[in-house]
Amino acid sequence: MRDRRITPVLAHPHDRTRRRLLAGLGAATLLSACGRAAPLSLHGIDLSHRSGFGRDFRLLDPQGRARTLADFRGKIVLLFFGFTLCPDVCPTALTRAVQIRKLLGRDGERLQVIFITLDPERDTPKVLQAYTQAFDPNFLGLTADAQTIDATAKAFRVVYAKVPTGSTYTIDHSALSYVYDADGALRMALRHEQSAADCVHDIRQIL
């Protein structure tokens, strides 16, 4: 019998590229199958896989009703901690939230902005409601007793402290905005210095 020489077939560069792409798709599928969200490409901070971080809250709206994340299923929730007498950081964050809703177009209706006070002593329900609705009637302010607010802030790793100023005080606090997807999973934190357009880029990845 005549010997047949087997010539090795060298992979074409495009074949190698195709295999890498297929491997990447396979990994993404595996992540999805295991219940893990694929990594996000963000201007902010990806919190998709931070376990035990900001899982929920139980706070009161201006009408005294208890609110949790379950009340907002189906919505994208943007959550910010602050206080109504804040001179710059809080109004800047809420003004940006107004711009984000506008830039999202029709999807802006799916964005629920929540403002959690760090100053329940002065931010009464009436004050909190007037403050948030001055930015947008759909924005919601939440409060509770000081102990509950402190526990909630710690759950989100929010750093804050009262700072005496003359006969009164102000509050120094961290300034991240937290974003949940429509299933109630915490997905990202928006940096305070991000533009509204960069925030929209990030949020659109979970719409």
TrEMBL record:
InterPro entries attached to this UniProt entry: SCO1/SenC, Thioredoxin-like_sf
Organism listed in the record: Lysobacter gummosus
PANTHER family xref list: ELECTRON TRANSPORT PROTIN SCO1/SENC FAMILY MEMBER, LINALOOL DEHYDRATASE_ISOMERASE DOMAIN-CONTAINING PROTEIN
Pfam families: SCO1-SenC
Taxonomy, superkingdom: Bacteria
Entry protein name: SCO family protein
Similarity comment: Belongs to the SCO1/2 family.
